[in-house]
């Protein structure tokens, strides 16, 4: 065992290809066309994404080469640190060895640029000049804004209105990068107008914001849609995280027994865990993978595995995923991110096959874990990442109870510098654990498409 | 010339000693005792700092060994990146090669932890349990809060009131680390109470906040004072920045013609430039060093070189420095940080000897440069750092006019994720260039101590 704190790689060690779990995961259900019910093709996706991303969405190739211009931008902050959490280990007095892979070193402070840069690159190559997208907490929107600035693309971000109002700094970050940020539902789309007509005070949701962005992209040939999570090609791009972690564990002369990621749409979790699962599926070492989701928006632990739309209006292909129903609206006061009605098909299938174990974490427990981590390790985690921190602490304490020195890896997907008002609510006691809206889920599930 | 974008070092390459410019800079004036006027001794400093820091403040040794526990914490984010700013070079169409040394990867997003960690370590070793300090924009206070959490010390931060009101996120960051943040002037000290009696609406100043922290430390044997800039030992600890940069330039097979840093108290500028100046003073390559200060608080370009107090109440030793007078209160609406009446004695002496060239930059020009940099390089700079960005852009454009391909290095001392409201004011046009208060300076200079 190497007893160092960091296990640095050089820019040459940035992976040359993304890893595609679909190549190793048997029985992955294909996305279907909402009108015909048949498996979708590359051509079906061309109105909203460039051909190469459409191909990546459907490919079963194990590896997809990372273009050099994308690797060169990755090299500005990648390989990201793998850190041994010695301060946290001491604070917990645990025999567990805890490591975290820290994505907060990116310019926007999260893992999201890993795919934003790639998507902007392929769109630029395809002659596209404008991108439209949705964002919740704003990590994705600001990352696409960054990528748009670097590749000279105009970016419009439809931001869930409750987040737009709560997080002015995220809007300003997008504006600094030159992007346009619009609260959703907006009056710019049919979708937005019809929702506002029914509910002028709608807090919005990721599903609604996605519909707005997809609608704009489908109508304007110079505009494409960029997606921040859920889809196969998005998770694909994030696998640089787990591949780097595997190389770093070789330097550490260690290997995780448990891999933990927070999961909203699934891209952070998939990016970290899929390369480890790939090793396992090809006969290598086994790992226990845990997906930590919010108790108030628990698609994996409470939802249904079914074909559903990725957005509220029903513009996207049908995806087989764990879902609360595409009409489900998460509690508006939830501060912890990860508010999406569904889970990535790749993650959902891995959960169904027992390769990933989902857990639901309450909001107040997340912030308590985040504060504990900050004081022990120095980094204030994003509320999303706190779900993984809480789960890792629980695993480390179990390790202590059982007297077994396991190796625990978790993804620290971002820092919380934009989310300190949520920490403030936690400190002042105004932050409540939101009830999961079971009735809302059943109502939404009643609207599942008939496939 | 190596054409890569990053020049990564490993944790083993973190310097083993800090570099002390005082060893190579002739004729540095010693700090003096305010009561007697004689040169101060280690003993004079013991009421407020531990013996080892007092020794470092006065030593002429060229190297001071970095303790291993401090290096191990540095290793969580150091060596910090040296990045070739290819995006900015393209945007400016300049023959200059622009590099930046990026300190925003630290847990609090700036260079300040380099000395906070060291100071907390020495205080812990000396059996101290509490630290008191001042902070302006909050970068220093949050960094000392971080260090206090890591070493188990209670931290009280007196924060300039106008910043306390403007930057709630910085307070929350300190709170997350477990520190206590108090708006200054406060009713907790004689200094604060007497200022509030005269002016209940005092916006505060770094000088006032320093007096409060020093007063507390001087009265309570278990509390010491920790300083975020200006003093020799603080600049000493920051020299890891420049030493790493020299090693990274060797990898780049390049060397800077110009080294640029923003300067408020001088620790970021000194940390970056002193190792280069040391090379020059010992007969190595010459560099032009530029210190970029705010036009509204221009100690080097408009102030006087004289003995003055570091704080408003006159508790500190007398320091020979460029000063606007210890009673000078910078414009309260200034968003760009760097609001201190004086300049570090080491920087001041280097300016007096022509080794460092000061320039003053207006606030709006800083934000314009920050936005330009963000869109070209992806990182939103802290307003302080924008002073260096603006100066670097000016140098690169001069390089273009003259058709000379110079190598320009600047310090990107931190990211602006906590300062986006200031960017918002810039975008909305409400951010004004503050006039320098010349009358206020003359009034303050009239109160210089008689030495």
Automatic annotation (TrEMBL), chains A, B:
Coiled coil: none
Enzyme Commission number(s): 4.2.1.20
Gene3D superfamilies in the cross-refs: 3.40.50.1100
UniProt superkingdom: Bacteria
Residue numbers bearing the N6-(pyridoxal phosphate)lysine modification: 112
Pathway the protein takes part in: Amino-acid biosynthesis; L-tryptophan biosynthesis; L-tryptophan from chorismate: step 5/5
Cofactor(s) it depends on: pyridoxal 5'-phosphate
Reaction(s) this enzyme catalyzes, per UniProt: (1S,2R)-1-C-(indol-3-yl)glycerol 3-phosphate + L-serine = D-glyceraldehyde 3-phosphate + L-tryptophan + H2O
Entries under InterPro entries matching the protein: Trp_synth_b-like, Trp_synth_b_CS, Trp_synth_beta/beta-like, TrpB-like_PALP, TrpB-like_PALP_sf
Keywords: Amino-acid biosynthesis, Aromatic amino acid biosynthesis, Lyase, Pyridoxal phosphate, Tryptophan biosynthesis
Sequence ranges assigned to domain Tryptophan synthase beta chain-like PALP in this UniProt record: 77-414
Chain intervals for the UniProt region annotation (Disordered): 183-206
Subunit note: Tetramer of two alpha and two beta chains.
Entry similarity comment: Belongs to the TrpB family.
Functional note: The beta subunit is responsible for the synthesis of L-tryptophan from indole and L-serine.
Matching PANTHER family: TRYPTOPHAN SYNTHASE (PTHR48077:SF6), TRYPTOPHAN SYNTHASE-RELATED (PTHR48077)
Protein name per its UniProtKB record: Tryptophan synthase beta chain
Species name: Actinokineospora diospyrosa
Gene encoding the protein: trpB
């Amino acid at each position: 065992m190497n007893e160092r704190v960091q296990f640095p790689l050089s820019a040459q060690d940035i992976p040359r290809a993304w890893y595609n779990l679909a190549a190793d995961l048997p029985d992955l259900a294909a996305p279907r066309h909402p009108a015909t019910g048949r498996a979708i093709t590359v051509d079906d996706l061309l109105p909203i994404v460039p051909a190469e991303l459409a191909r990546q969405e459907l490919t079963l190739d194990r590896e997809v080469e990372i273009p050099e211009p994308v690797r060169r931008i990755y090299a500005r902050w990648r390989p990201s640190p793998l850190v041994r959490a010695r301060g946290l280990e001491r604070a917990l007095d645990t025999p567990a060895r805890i490591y975290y892979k820290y994505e907060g070193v990116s310019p926007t402070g999260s893992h999201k640029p890993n795919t934003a840069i790639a998507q902007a690159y392929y769109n630029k190559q395809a002659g596209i000049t404008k991108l439209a997208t949705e964002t919740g907490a704003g990590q994705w929107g600001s990352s696409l804004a960054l990528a748009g600035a670097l590749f000279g693309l105009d970016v419009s971000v439809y931001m869930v209105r409750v987040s737009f109002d709560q997080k002015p700094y995220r809007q300003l970050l997008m504006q600094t990068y030159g992007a346009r940020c619009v609260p959703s539902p907006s009056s710019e789309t049919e979708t937005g107008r019809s929702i506002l007509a029914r509910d002028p005070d709608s807090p919005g949701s990721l599903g609604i914001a996605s519909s707005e962005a997809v609608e704009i992209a489908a109508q304007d040939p110079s505009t494409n849609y960029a997606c921040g999570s859920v889809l196969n090609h998005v998770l694909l791009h994030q696998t640089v995280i787990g591949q780097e972690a595997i190389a770093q564990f070789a330097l550490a002369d260690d290997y995780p027994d448990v891999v933990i990621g927070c999961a909203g749409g699934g891209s952070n979790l998939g990016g970290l865990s899929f390369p480890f699962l790939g090793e396992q599926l090809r006969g290598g070492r086994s790992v226990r993978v845990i997906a930590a989701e919010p108790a108030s928006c628990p698609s994996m632990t409470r939802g249904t595995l079914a074909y559903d739309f990725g957005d509220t209006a029903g513009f996207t292909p049908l995806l087989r995923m764990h879902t609360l129903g595409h009409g489900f609206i998460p509690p508006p006061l939830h501060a912890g991110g990860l508010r999406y009605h569904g889970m990535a098909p790749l993650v959902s299938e891995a959960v169904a096959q027992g390769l990933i174990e989902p857990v639901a974490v309450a909001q107040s427990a997340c912030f308590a874990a985040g504060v504990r981590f900050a004081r022990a390790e120095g980094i204030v985690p994003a509320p999303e990442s706190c779900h993984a921190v809480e789960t890792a602490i629980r695993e480390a304490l179990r390790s202590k109870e059982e007297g077994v020195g396991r190796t625990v890896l978790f993804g620290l997907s971002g820092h919380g510098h934009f989310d300190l008002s949520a920490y403030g609510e936690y400190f002042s006691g105004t932050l409540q654990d939101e009830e999961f809206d079971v009735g809302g889920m059943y109502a939404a599930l009643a609207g599942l498409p008939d496939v």
